Amino acid sequence: MTGMPQTEVTQDDILATVLKSLDDNKAEDVVQIDLRGKTTVCDYMVICSGRSSRQLGAISDKLVEDLKHELGVQAKSEGKDTGDWVLIDTGDVIVHVFRPEVREFYQLEKMWLPLAQGGVQAAT
Description:
Blueprint: H1 11-24, E1 28-34, E2 44-49, H2 53-71, E3 76-78, E4 85-89, E5 93-98, H3 100-106, H4 108-116
Parallel strand pairs: 2-5
Antiparallel strand pairs: 1-2, 3-4, 4-5
Helix pairs in contact: 1-2
């Protein structure tokens, strides 16, 4: 699949590559949230943890590299310099890589899982 144009890549291809890369790079407590038809933000959200700031950087760098080399997807990342929370945005799949204590503080799973499971979104 190396060099495949992005127009031929599906969100399922991206999700599979994300999950494999996270597993290969020892990301912990990986949670996949299916948001198709529930929000326009993304189709899938993946949340995981790394043990240290250094591991967060390595996980996020390798993920961006894997997406580019395997699928030709140019992912954007934010937050690597702080070392607490890295967000990788592929368009269809958003990945959050946290240090465990930062993940516990923000609790994104609690915000997004009820919506993914058919919960009611609060009015804005």
